[in-house]
Amino acid sequence: MSDNSFTGTSIAGDDYVEQMTPTEFEETVYKYIAELGQNLPGFKVAHNTRVTGSDGIYQADILASYTALNVNMVVLIECKHYTSPVGREKIQILNDKLRSTGAHKGILFSTSGFQSGAIEYALRHKIALVRLLTSRFEMVTNTLAKPKRPVYAPPAPQTFIGEFYAADRMSYIANGKISALVAYCL
């Protein structure tokens, strides 16, 4: 088992999330998801809501839905405001919620890194892991093959909220726009 954990600071600078409360963190993620999905057909998003599963009722930090291919797609989003890396068991719990509720996608946002076992489990089960860093979100996993980390990156826009990865290229996402993709040093 290789150590894929990322627990250091990013090219964006030192983490500021320690000053947030867990509720403020959830609200930050909620606003991010609301902005990201605003142009999706039938898009709805709810914060701190209940979801009925085959084996009971679950609490969801954020529940998003939209229409794609004439089908209502459901995304369960969990937020973990931790100071140490998130462990595999939290990803397993999210996966159980997905199976019980029939949701199509799971995303776990964290204020800290992820343990290597959590990353490996998430990759196998197509659960996205996202870490909130200073002024941006960092995709740790996605359903696409995980690209190598860049040795260099383009200068970040003044305000930016995340990074976009496509094959061996990355870009910053700022104000609803994606800057030019640059190649990773492979």
Q: What order do the helices and strands come in, and which of them pair?
A:
Elements: H1 22-37, E1 44-53, E2 56-68, E3 71-80, H2 88-101, E4 105-110, H3 116-124, E5 128-133, E6 136-141, E7 162-166, E8 169-174, E9 177-178, E10 182-183
Structure description:
The protein is α+β, with helices and mostly antiparallel strands. The chain is 21% helix and 35% strand. It has a 6-stranded mixed beta sheet with strand order 1-2-3-4-5-6, with helices on both faces. Helix 2 packs parallel to helix 3. It starts with 21 loop residues before the first helix and ends with a strand. The N terminus and C terminus are likely disordered.
Shape: globular
| Unreliable residue runs | 1-15, 144-157, 181-186
Give the ordered list of helices and strands: HEEEHEHEEEEEE
Beta-strand proportion: 35-45%
Secondary structure class reads alpha+beta
Largest sheet: 6 strands, mixed
Number of helical elements: 3
Share of helical residues? 10-25%
Strands, total number: 10
Distance linking N and C termini: 22 Å
Mean pLDDT, nearest integer? 75
Physical arrangement of strands within the biggest beta sheet: 1-2-3-4-5-6
Radius of gyration: 16 Å
